[in-house]
Amino acid sequence: MPATIEHFDLIIVGAGLSGIGAAHYFTEKCPGKTFAILESRDAIGGTWDLFRYPGIRSDSDMHTLGYDFKPWKEKKAIADGPAIWDYINETAKEDGSDKHIRYDHKVISAEWSSDNARWTLNVTHKSGKGTSQISCNFLSMCAGYYDYDEGFTPVFEGREDFEGMIVHPQKWPEDLDYKDKKVVVIGSGATAVTLVPSMADKAAKVTMLQRSPTYMINAPSKDWISNFLRKILPEQTAYNLVRKKNVWRQSLLYKTSQKSPEKIKKYLRKQAIKALGNDFPFDPHLTPSYNPWDERLCLIPDGDLYESLNAGKAEIVTDHIDHFTKTGLALKSGAHLDADIIVTATGLNLVVLGSIDVMVDGQEMDFTQLFAYEGMMFSDIPNLISTFGYVNASWTLRADLNARFMCRLINYMEANGVRQVTPRAPDDMPQRPWLDFAPGYVRRVLHMFPHQGDREPWLNTQDYIRDRKVLAHHPLDDGYLIFTNPAESEALEAAQ
After folding, report:
1. Least CB-packed of 19, 304, 408, 444 within 10 Å?
2. Is 59 in contact with 80 (CB distance < 8 Å)?
3. DSSP per-residue letters across 41-90
4. Is the bond preceding residue 284 a cis peptide, omega within 30 degrees?
């Protein structure tokens, strides 16, 4: 006889910020149902355990990056990686969801069968246990949006000639000694902006080498309003108020950037001039060619990057790499950057659904031909919700909404005696890109992602205020979510 496959009502893939949040909501809103969290690595925390480079921190405030049900209690609102890991771990222990985590469980494929209305997951184990299978009625993909195994590194001519050390932030060596070393950080995104000031205190000099500038916004690491309100109000009340304040500010900044980009350009430049002075060469180093929020703004907590530049511990060079040399980088301009260590802060490799293969009733699903329902379900794929956070606001704002919507959907299905829900897109709907967002790490892989349509609920709006209202109250029987597979058939199967 074949071995019995362990079965759960819900499987959550990923034990990071999103997965632990999903477990909390499922426990609270779907009591009595069974679930497990499958984590490919050997630790909780996802991003906040994987990345160990100097200065690793949030690029959003923790009042919105944190869960809405668990107040952030630290004084710093812009938190470092270890503090965020502690927060996730503490949440899992308080909820008891840590006891549901299966480590060393990497999902490689998921097969849906309408005959028994369930997913069968094929899992591999790095520890040498081989492979196994687990089944579930509903699948929550919280595996993040990038490849955990490898970061993105362009092909650099002559890379093998460099006699120093080359490091990608995703695989930072614990014993890397950069004291009194010349360091070049290739890139100008959030990781580079974090690394440069963090390494500048020990290194002989740190150079941020960028092909083009990025918009940067200076903000205090501590939220004085939050720290004041916590003294006079209950913890959750103070947290809720600050969360609303920060959501409003994020939304205002983004919408103003879309409607009046010149106004935001002037604001950001004024910030930089105040920190660096009029003599700093803003052209070409800090004047992007695009509008604010066409790409994500880089957060500079307490102006740390500006301080390093002012102190002469760091510099920005805007140029293109021609090739690596034995001692550094030869640039297109003819200049040469000497380096002992080169850090390739060149981005991530984005993936769809954690790179798992998906089959529905024996048919392999091609995600490039699918539409995204409310940015989290996919046309023709039943009983699955995927979490992809906001690009213009904190990731967890969207993760919380997705988890609550999932619980609402599961409870609706049970109340109506059905076991399967499948989004169906209109036949005549034109395809639009998954995201209206321009950074290179998105453009490189956008062709691999599902599409959004030209009407609700097939839009990926990136609008938290809108989503908060719609996802909580939008009728589930909207004609696009197709409910099938009556629960009576399950009872019949059991009887047979």
Report:
1. 444
2. no
3. SSSS-THHHH--STT-B-SS-HHHHS-TTS---SSBSS-BHHHHHHHHHH
4. yes
Q: What predicted TM-score, i.e. pTM, was given to this entire model?
A: 0.94
Distance CA 144, CA 351 (A): 8
User: 45 near 16, Cβ under 8 Å?
Assistant: yes
The per-residue b/e assignment along 21-55, b for 16 or more CB within 10 angstroms, e otherwise, is bbbbbbbeebeebebbbbbbbeebbbbbbbbbbbb
- Structure-token match 């550094």, residue found: 328
The span from the CA of 258 to the CA of 296, in Å, is: 13
**Residue ranges per structural domain of the chain:** 6-148+349-495, 159-344
What does the pLDDT average to over 184-198? Answer: 95
For residue 124, the 8-state DSSP code is: E
- Distance (Å, whole) CA 98 – CA 92: 5
- Tell me which residue of 91, 102, 36, 94 sits closest to 68, measured CA to CA: 91
The architecture that CATH gives domain 159-344 is 3-Layer(bba) Sandwich (3.50)
Q: What is the pLDDT of residues 345-367, one digit of tens each?
A: 998 888 888 889 999 999 999 99
Region 57-80: what's the mean pLDDT?
Answer: 95
Matching fold, domains 6-148+349-495 and 159-344: yes
Amino acid occupying residue 325: T
Give the domain 6-148+349-495 fold: FAD/NAD(P)-binding domain (3.50.50)
| Reported confidence tier of residue 296, pLDDT bands at 50, 70, 90 | confident
Candidates 496, 485, 483; CA nearest to 118 is 485
Instruction: Calculate mean pLDDT across residues 84-97.
Output: 97
Q: Which residues contact 224 (CB under 8 A, 6 or more apart)?
A: none
